[in-house]
Specification:
Blueprint (H helix, E strand, L loop, with lengths): L13 E2 L3 E5 L2 H11 L2 H4 L10 H10 L10 E7 L4 E12 L4 E8 L9 H15 L5 E7 L3 H9 L3 E12 L2 E11 H6 L1 H11 L3
Parallel strand pairs: 5-6
Antiparallel strand pairs: 1-2, 2-3, 3-4, 4-5, 6-8, 7-8
Helix pairs in contact: 1-3
Bound molecules: coenzyme A.
C-alpha cells in the first residue's frame, strides 16, 4: 500500500497503451488455469491435456531464476485500465547460441478478443525479444484454422514462411500448421510502423 493508503499500481515490466506485460505470479495462475481449460481457448493453443493449478505452479517454479539465462520467459498480460490479468504470453525454447526463440500468446478472457489486444501484447513481446534480449529470430507455430491468431501474427509483422502438412491432430483430423518468422532486421525496419500501430490502438 502507498503511504496515502491508496492501492499501489504494479510497475509495468513492459508498458503499452492498453496492456502491460508483468512477471507471472501464483495469483495470475489462479485466474489463468480455469481459462486455459476452456475448450474455446485451448482449442488451438496446444492445451490438449487438462491443466491443474499444481502443474502450472510447478511449471512457474521450474522456470527458475529468470534474471539468469533461462530458456523460457513467461509474462502475464495485464489490462491497464482494470488492473487485472487477461492472458499470458511467453518466449520459449530460447537458444542463446543461435539467438532464436519461439513465442506463444493467449488471451484467456474471451470478452477481450477482437480488440487488437494480441497485437499490442505481441508487439511488446517482440520489442523485448529483439530490443532487450538481442535475439536474431522469432518463430511462432500457428494451426491453419486459427485465422484470428494468424491475423494477429501478420499484423505484428511476422510472416508465414512455410506449412507443416498434417502436423497436428485436432477434432479428429490431421491439420496443417503454419510456421511464422520474424528477423531482427525486419523488426528494426518496421519500428516506425509499429509505433503508429500502437498509436492507433490508443483510445481517442
Ligand atoms: C488468438 C488470440 C490470441 C487473438 O487475440 P485477439 O486479441 O482477439 O486478436 P486481435 O484482436 O489482436 O486480432 C488481431 C487481428 O486478427 C485478425 N482477425 C481477427 N479475427 C479474425 C478472423 N476470424 N479471421 C481472420 N482474421 C482475423 C484481424 O486482422 C485482427 O486485427 P484487426 O481486427 O484489428 O484488423 C485469442 O483469440 C486467443 O487467445 N485465442 C485462444 C488461444 C489461442 O488460440 N492462442 C494462439 C495459439 S497460436
Amino acid at each position: 500500500m502507498a503511504e496515502s493508503g491508496k492501492k499501489s499500481l504494479p510497475i509495468p515490466f513492459l508498458a503499452g497503451p492498453r496492456v502491460s506485460l508483468q512477471p507471472q505470479s501464483e495469483t495470475d495462475i489462479t485466474v489463468a488455469v480455469p481459462r486455459i481449460n476452456d475448450p474455446e481457448v485451448r482449442h488451438y493453443a496446444r492445451a490438449t491435456y487438462p491443466v491443474t493449478m499444481e502443474a502450472r505452479k510447478k511449471q512457474l517454479a521450474d522456470v527458475g531464476d529468470i534474471s539468469q539465462k533461462s530458456d523460457s520467459i513467461p509474462f502475464a498480460i495485464w489490462l491497464n485500465a482494470e488492473e487485472r490479468v487477461i492472458g499470458d504470453c511467453s518466449i520459449n525454447n530460447i537458444s542463446w547460441t543461435d539467438r532464436n526463440a519461439w513465442v506463444g500468446l493467449g488471451i484467456g478472457d474471451k470478452t477481450m478478443w477482437g480488440q487488437g489486444i494480441a497485437v499490442e501484447a505481441g508487439t511488446l513481446l517482440l520489442d523485448y525479444a529483439f530490443g532487450e534480449l538481442n535475439l536474431h529470430k522469432i518463430i511462432a507455430g500457428i494451426f491453419m484454422p486459427n485465422k484470428r491468431s494468424q491475423g494477429a501474427a501478420r499484423k505484428g509483422g511476422l510472416e508465414c514462411i512455410g506449412i507443416l502438412h498434417d502436423h497436428v491432430f485436432v477434432d479428429g483430423h490431421f491439420i496443417d500448421s503454419c510456421i511464422f518468422e520474424m528477423f531482427r532486421d525486419e523488426w528494426l525496419s518496421q519500428k516506425d510502423a509499429r509505433g503508429k500501430l500502437l498509436e492507433g490502438i490508443l483510445p481517442s
